[in-house]
Amino acid sequence: MVRYVGIDVGKAKCRVAVVNQKGDVEDEFFFENSNKGISELEAMLKVEDRVVMESTGNLWLNIYDALDSRSIKVVLANPMQTRASSRKKKTDKVDARKLALLLKAGLISESYVPPGYLREMRALVRHRLSLVRLRTMQKNKVHAILDKYGYRCERSDLYGKAGRAWLGRLKFNGLDRLLVENHVSLIEFVGVQVEGVDAAILQKASEEDDVRLLLSLTGVDVFTAVLIKSEIGTIERFDNYKKLVSWAGLAPSVHQSGEVEFHGGITREGSGVLRWAIVEAAWIAVNHDVKLREFYERVCSRRGKQKAAVAVACKMLKIIWFMLTRREVYGGAKERRYGEKLKKIGVKG
Asked: How many Å apart are CA 267 and CA 243, to the nearest integer?
């Protein structure tokens, strides 16, 4: 007999509600979110049970992996969808029951759970993004101090050898000198960390056939290719390119009332990291790919630069879907440039 198990995941403990096929709450209990607690949960569940949790942070990972290893069907709910319904009160007890009942009714919007190796790849590229953002933050603070004194650096790289020497000759008060030196030290330290992460990304890239194909697309470098692969996962989970575009949050929103239908801006739902990466790649591609440039200019003349860049990003996702589905390199790939990218990951072009 199938039972529906809702788990409200917490950092220290989790609330469980077990609902039978009649919709009655059969059992409720807590378990610790630890190896011991998860083992106790496993012992209480049956193989035919169906389990649902919300995909909040990383707190669900160990529970999911433990139950999945026992072939217990686990559904990871999209928290944006399950929280969209109105509620008069919020408690762990209500949340666990609600999840179980929604699962029984087939109303759970399921989140994609990538396999372990893709989770590692995602963690790697997202870690690099956080490091780069931290470095950019420190650079902005240095520039803020320079603006305070009206200094303008004429060096191409403020943090290179010549730029550092120029910084050393500037006159600051005691506190600002200390701040500049601290910020620059942090920039150098983070730069070393980024280099280490880049080496790991290159290693991951060399192991993935999809990454090799993605590198043929104009505007996509090694980091972007690994990011796209880690976010998309297997292309087979998208029946057509429109679903991929929608999953990236780049599809236009639709508002319909009766016979009137209005198309608004992009939904911005789904993978924000993928959306950011493909739009950045689009800006690069329009400067180096003739066909994409022509497409960009046609859209730009009617709708402006920003919307034209989004349109190019959508077109690139469409191209990516066909490339990965048909196992073909990009038709407009420049052989020399593609060979250079492959060389970076240790593959002969």
From this structure: 13
Helix (H) or strand (E) holding 159, with range, is: none
In angstroms, how far is CA 262 from the centroid of its own chain?
Answer: 29
- From residue 160, give the alpha-carbon distance in Å to each of 163, 187, 192, 196, 347: 5, 11, 14, 19, 31
Query: By three-state DSSP, how is residue 330 classified?
Result: coil
| Amino acid letter, residue 23 | G
| pLDDT of 260 above 60 | no
Write 125-134 long-range contacts (CB < 8 A, 24+).
125/201, 125/223, 125/226, 125/227, 125/230, 125/273, 126/273, 127/197, 128/194, 128/197, 128/198, 128/201, 128/223, 129/273, 131/190, 131/193, 131/194, 131/197, 132/194, 134/186, 134/190
Label each residue of 200-228 as H, E or C.
HHHHHHHCCHHHHHHCCCCCCCHHHHHHH
pLDDT surpasses 60 at 315: yes
Tell me which amino acid residue 335 is: E
d(CA 302, CA 57): 41
The vertex-182 CA angle with 124 and 198, nearest 5°, equals 20
Confidence bin at 314 (pLDDT 50/70/90): very high
Alpha helix ranges (H) inside the chain: 35-44, 61-69, 79-82, 92-105, 116-149, 161-169, 174-206, 209-214, 222-232, 241-247, 272-285, 290-303, 305-326, 335-344
**AA identity, residue 330:** Y
Q: Give the pair of three-digit tokens for residue 237.
A: 């989970």
The model's pTM is 0.86
Please state, in angstroms and rounded to a whole number, the distance separating the CA atoms of residues 76 and 79: 9
200: burial class by Cβ within 10 Å (0-12, 13-18, 19+)? middle
